[in-house]
Design a protein that fits this description.
It is built from 8 helices and 2 strands. By secondary structure, it is mainly α. It has a two-stranded antiparallel sheet. The radius of gyration is 20 Å and the shape is globular.
């Protein structure tokens, strides 16, 4: 029996499969938050876009899983992608410093154009605060940074964060507490 009228499709074997539009909707709903998280973690817009795209492509392999599992799976895939990119950046910095070159980041010229709908002073203050948060987050240990980004920025529950980080609920609470204390100390000027 095959029913293809709704978002669920029942295969001849009786296995429920989700139509691609469901996964597309999930990815569309999560992409902005994932990008902001990746941008904070990596500090570079293009790297963040690439990391989110890779994570989304990685989730497509799991589209047959129940939709309730997509969130933790996506955040786990993105977390691993960010970790891999951090490692590659560290190796690149070591190699470039060894040969005497510095890796210079290029600003996106479109991002430098003023936004006519926003007060320039407020935009500058928001950008400065966002950059300060990003610098402070990049100074945190990896697990604390991941926990903060998943819990506070993405709004995941303790259980969802624990599933995404493959650790216990208690570890999530410990990592978050330590991250918050370190960020309060580093960002005291931005209160």
């Amino acid at each position: 029996m095959t029913d293809r009228s709704g978002p669920l499709a029942l295969s001849p074997e009786g296995v429920v499969a989700f139509a691609p539009s469901d996964l597309d909707g999930f990815l569309a709903g999560i992409e902005r938050r994932a990008f902001r998280m990746a941008e904070l973690a990596l500090g570079h817009r293009e790297d963040a876009l690439d990391a989110v795209q890779e994570a989304m492509m990685g989730l497509v392999r799991y589209r047959q899983r129940p939709a309730s599992e997509w969130g933790p799976l996506f955040w786990r895939i993105l977390r691993r992608e960010l970790t891999d990119r951090h490692r590659r950046q560290a190796v690149r910095r070591r190699v470039l410093s060894f040969v005497g070159r510095r890796d210079k980041e290029q600003e996106d010229p479109v991002a430098l154009l003023p936004d006519p709908s926003q007060d320039p002073a407020r935009r500058h203050a928001d950008d400065a605060a966002w950059q300060a948060l990003g610098r402070a987050l990049r100074k945190l240990p990896r697990r604390q940074r991941e926990c903060f980004l998943l819990r506070e920025l993405q709004g995941l529950s303790v259980a969802e964060t624990a599933a995404a980080m493959a650790c216990s609920d208690g570890s999530v609470k410990t990592h978050l507490s330590r991250a918050m204390a370190a960020l309060r100390e580093q960002l005291e000027d931005w209160r």
